[in-house]
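Hello,

Our lab assistant flagged a job as stuck in the queue for most of the afternoon. It eventually completed. Since we weren't sure the result was trustworthy after the delay, we are filing this so someone can double-check. Below is the sequence as submitted and the structure that was eventually returned. Let us know if re-running is recommended.
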Amino acid sequence: MQCPYDTKPRWERRKEARPQELLAAALDLFVERGFASTRLEDVARRAGVSKGTLYLYFTNKEELFKAVVRDSIVPVIGAAEDSIAGFEGHSADLLRSVIVNWWQRLGATKASGIPKLMMAEAANFPDIASFYQEEVIARGTRMIAGLLERAVARGEFRPVNVQITTQVLIAPMLMLMTWKHSVGPCDQCNLDPLAFLDAFLDMALHGLVPPN
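-- returned structure --
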């Protein structure tokens, strides 16, 4: 009978977990300090390893940042794409599901600070800006545009300019993440993100769903 416990030596188990520990430490520091001010030695220190150990997994800060994005943001987009592809109900329900799940899986996590970082530092780091544009912004934009095209084709949303409406739908989500990682902690209004999204969706859907 197979032993239910992990019998690998502690050092070996730690070695297998180390890339994820480094990614978690890097995410914390990128969000706290920004890309330019994050140093690899600080990432290594927070993860409890040497800087040399970090280089066994990531060749430089740019590759570490890309790995953080691919670990924390790209899977959320992939899950949303899958939910859209398999959804059979009304497009209004689909849009609500995609946006609420986006907040729960990304907006409410530490990774929600990455978009703010990109807005602040993209101009100074064109390589990571190009990477982020391709793997996050373009892919997310195509996803929302495809949802709108589906809705219009099914007669569930009125005809709209899909390109512009896509940006209109994305903008409040970006605002909410930026607020969370800037003035949010000092805001005395105590904005409830889910209540904000509910009000946004109510306003958006009443402008998109055709009258009966």
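-- support follow-up --
The delay was a queue issue, not a problem with the job. The result is valid. Confidence is low (pLDDT under 50) at residues 5-13. Residues 73-208 form a domain with the Tetracycline Repressor; domain 2 fold (CATH 1.10.357).
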